[in-house]
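ZP: hey, is the zinc ion complex queued? I don't see it on the tracker
AM: it wasn't, my bad. submitting now with these inputs:
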Amino acid sequence: MTNISTLGFNFIVGCNNVEFKKLATVYNPNTRDVSSSDKDPISSENDDGSLSSSLEEKDENASQDSSQELEIDLAVWATKNKCTRSALNELLAILRKQGLRLPKDARTLLRTPRTVDVVEKCGGNYFYMGLENGVLKLIHQNVDYFADLEQIQLTFNIDGVPLFKSTNVQLWPILCSVQGFEPFVVSIFCGNHKPNSVEEYLNDFLMELQEMLQNGIQVNEIIKQVEVFAFICDAPARAFVKCIKGHNAYYSCERCVVKGTWNGRVVFNDEITEAPRTDDGFQNSEYENHQVGKSPLIDIGLSCIKLFSLDYMHLVCLGVVKRMLTFLKQGPRECRLSYQQLTIISENLLNLNGKMPREFARQPRSTDYLDRWKATELRQFLLYTGPIVLKSVVSANFISISFL
Ligand SMILES: [Zn+2]
């Protein structure tokens, strides 16, 4: 058993001041009969130790009921508004000062489990929260939406998340989402490296998923079918889960059997279309130079080709768009733009700075910072600003090929 706080979890953010004011008004301490703020509500008794009269007992019971009700309301409010533990502690201290019978600590109020069943697995700590539990919880929270739905489509994400800059401690959560809803956590691995066995890491999850795929999920005596919609992972996580070679290997293409060529790094320049990889071929381990082992997903009949989408952020934004701009900025002589041309592009971009609506995450920056452009900036360049800022610099033909 390991204390969850050692895993460095913090799922809670922000606190709403307006709601707090409303709450303080609703629970006006002057309307309640509370003897002492420092007393534990459960162990409180009369100061002189005498027996209470029936009237006093009634008052006492009513007061306990109302403080229990207040505790429940506060706990619901804090969870709904994602109130931080420190903010909730402060609120509790304020309310206690006003004479309300409330616990001192947010953890007592929210009944946070002090310990969780963390097991040692795959070279680190592992905690399984459950897939069916998560889906059922979602269904019960959105009864109307799921009432007429016969089939539930699940999307999964598996990824490594570094926790701190100074250490290698990382989390490997398995997340599940039903389209249109916030994802929930199925299991979490925490260790100094990625899980050392993909079979062990996925075992609990795949066993439960297989059961759900075969028998569906029962909601109020109605069985709803369950289907896997996709696995959305970045390239290293895909290689890990699918048991294939990394994205910089010669036979790393996940869609066809092409062999890359070496040009400072492995590149795929061949214009010849190679045979596509198929689920049958993958399941029969036909791709010896691509697969490094047998993925546990195959055992429960999941497709390792069609279910794994290739991510837009790395392929398009940080891939093609960044490569194209790098060629324009510092590529070979045939395609490199002159210093003056680059200056015009940067000026055009800076002219748009501050003018992009707030729906955009970032404002355009000069090409001097191209190395540090984030994926959203590259996407903005591709879809919105690119054709405009390049218009006076490159040929219309280039713009129509690259952007339209
Ligand atoms: Zn390919």
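AM: back. The radius of gyration is 29 Å.
ZP: great, adding it to the tracker
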